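Exercise: predict the fold of this chain.
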Amino acid sequence: MLSSSELSEFRADLLEWFARQKRDLPWRRTRDPYAIWISEIMLQQTRVAAVIPYYERFVARFPAFGALAAAGETELLAAWAGLGYYYRAHNLQKAARL
């Protein structure tokens, strides 16, 4: 078990390491919960490199819950095409409509 001072030092070291090593990802540049949520769903079982262009296009096309909720199925699936696991797109839209 770490002492309080060891834990504090570990936290500081970890945060310092992350500041140096983190990847520049579009969902890290926003504080918008909607955009972060979209990224979390897209990243399920999909490589980060594959998600980035889809994320950027998707959030540009559907920038908020209302836009996603109002989208037609054809439009939604066209925006998701190539990303796979289409149930994720359907579930995103169902949640946006709540």
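Check your answer against the key: The longest helix spans residues 4-21.
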